[in-house]
Fold this protein.
Amino acid sequence: MANDRTDLMQGTLELMILKTLSRDAMHGYGIAQRIHEAADDLLKIEDGSLYPALYRMEARGWIASDWGVSENNRRAKFYRLTRAGRKQLDAECANWNRVSQAISRILQTA
C-alpha cells in the first residue's frame, strides 16, 4: 500500500502539522516522520512543502520555534503550538469535519 500515496487537499498539511504539534514540540523532520507513520505510509510530506508551511504558520503566530539539539545531537529548530495555534487547530478540525461529512454524503448518494 505504500506505493499508493495520496495527494493532499489544500489546507490539510497545516491541519496535520497543528495536530502533530498539539502533542509536543518537534523539529521539522520529526513532524514529517510522525505524519508519515500515523498515516501508515500513505502520506509523505516533502521538505519543499513542509518548511514553507512551517514558516507561514510561524509568521501567522500559530507556532513558535526555538533552537535545540535533536536526538542525534544535531542543532535543530523545534516548533511548538501557540495559544493562537490551538485556536486555529480547533477551527481547522471543525472545518475538516464539515467538509469530510459533505464529501461522505456525496459519495453515498452519487
Remarks:
- The chain has four helices and three strands.
- The longest helix spans residues 83-109.
- The longest strand covers residues 63-69.
- The chain has a mean pLDDT of 90.
